[in-house]
Amino acid sequence: MSSRTPGSLGVYGFRNRADYSYDKLSLANSKAIKVKRLWNLLGEAGKKVILIGVPQTYPPQPVNGIMVGDFLTPDIKSDYTYPAGIRDEIRETVGEYLLDVRDFRTDNKDKILADIYEMTEKRFALARHFVTEKPWDYFMMVEMGTDRIHHAFWSYMDPLHRSYEKGHRFENAIFDYYRFIDSQLGKLLKVLDRETHLFIVSDHGAKRMDGGICVNDWLIQEGYLHLKGPKPDQPTPFSKVQVDWDKTLAWGDGGYYARIFLNVKGREPRGIIPSSDYEKVRGELAEKICRVPDDQGRSIPTRAYSPQELYRTINGVAPDLLVYWGGLYWRSVGSVGNPSIYTFQNDTGPDDANHAEHGIMIYRPPAAGDERMTGSTIPGDARLLDITPTILSLFGMAPTAEMEGRPLLLN
Fold first, then answer.
1. β-pair type (342-343, 211-214)
2. How far apart are CA 239 and CA 393, in angstroms?
């Protein structure tokens, strides 16, 4: 929505280093985004906007229209809407609004599934209410159900998943949910006029997760990370272990990809890597990371990038390495004290799927008097960065000079 890369925004994950200290972190909420996004530009041009559940919109900020906060909102008792009074209308329309699945990383799969359906049904009901009852030029909603159901139910669907059980009662849970969300989308389309440009876009794909690689346990094993005292005998959050910074070269963070930080002299408070050795240490570490095999000793296609390789602009405190374990079939686990560098339980709870590189983009142009479902050709090299410039162009507006995408030629 900003047409900026993580490097330009200075946002590299849900939690980011706020400075070069060892423990100060900032959360990637709306306050982390310091640039104008699509709805700001449209609002300044006099266009009315409605936003529901878009990531990084909590805490909500003033817009020319309505904003309903995202899944990072603590709960519906929070001030999660703009204007604030719209909360009452939401309650009257759908009852208890679900910002997210209450807990999608548990073994209570029946509860997760019920919550996903309830959340999706209420979100689309609110969407239909707003688009029919409120003025708008630009409407956007994000449905988290597709993400949550992948994480919770992928192993029941995918025969290649190590936990797959043929004939399990949840084997069709994902397929059935996609049919349900198609029906919800159909209901929404019925209340939109055919002069509306429609985009369906996902910011990532999904794939099975073969396991997790415990990045900090591996760094300890290889002599890059040192603790004060013995390693914990059970998985412990990195923030709760005592690091011997005077001996530590590197540490890492968990997530869909690993973020590795080097302890650089003159940069970190107790850094030990001389700046003259920085590139040498980073290069050697990247090479070792890419040689880590899977739990069976087989080679996996891990890639370790410097931020400079990925982003033309680097703001904020960027990781020194961004590691994609095993083509994203493996995720990074940041806890310390695991029995092995390999784990098959996410440190935040059960998880079946990881984020994949490629999402989807679907575009339906206005009917122009033809009520048939017409399509449009999307360039094969389309990127997420191109979405905002493309939508601006449909409003007759040019992208700003700082945007890194370009308007797509949809024909």
1. antiparallel
2. 46
Tell me whether the omega of the peptide bond preceding residue 237 falls within 30 degrees of 0, making it cis. no
112 phi/psi in degrees, rounded to 5:
-60, -45
pTM of the predicted model over 0.90? yes
Contact 128, 191 (CB under 8 A): yes
What is the number of alpha carbons within 13 Å of residue 10 lying toward its C-beta?
Answer: 15
Identify whether the C-beta of residue 347 lies closer than 8 Å to the C-beta of residue 212.
Answer: yes
* CA–CA gap between residue 193 and residue 369 (Å, rounded): 11
Q: Give pLDDT tens digits for 350-362.
A: 789 999 999 999 9
Q: Which of 230, 117, 219 is nearest to 177 (CA)?
A: 117
Amino acid letter, 30: S
SS (H, E, C) the chain: CCCCCHHHHCCCCCEEECCCCCCCEEECCHHHCCCCCHHHHHHHCCCCEEEECCCCCCCCCCCCEEEECCCCCCCCCCCCEECCCHHHHHHHHHCCCCCCCCCCCCCCHHHHHHHHHHHHHHHHHHHHHHHHHCCCCEEEECCCHHHHHHHHHHHHHCCCCCCCCCCCCCCCHHHHHHHHHHHHHHHHHHCCCCCCCEEEECCCEEEECCEEEEHHHHHHHCCCCCECCCCCCCCECHHHCCECCCCCCEEEECECCEEEEECEECCECCCCECHHHHHHHHHHHHHHHHCCCCCCCCCCCCEEECHHHHCCCCCCCCCCEEEEHHHHCEEEECCECCCCCEECCCCCCCCCEEEECCCCEEEECCCCCCCCCCCCCCCCCCCHHHHHHHHHHHCCCCCCCCCCCCCCCCC
Least confident of 29-43, 159-173, 372-386: 372-386
Alpha carbon of residue 151 to chain centroid = 13
For the stretch 318-343, pLDDT in tens is: 999 999 999 999 999 999 999 999 99
Ordered by start, the domain boundaries in the chain are: 36-207+357-376, 211-350
Nearest CA to 318 among 269, 262, 246? 262
Cα distances (angstroms) measured from residue 365 to each of 242, 362, 369, 374:
57, 10, 11, 7
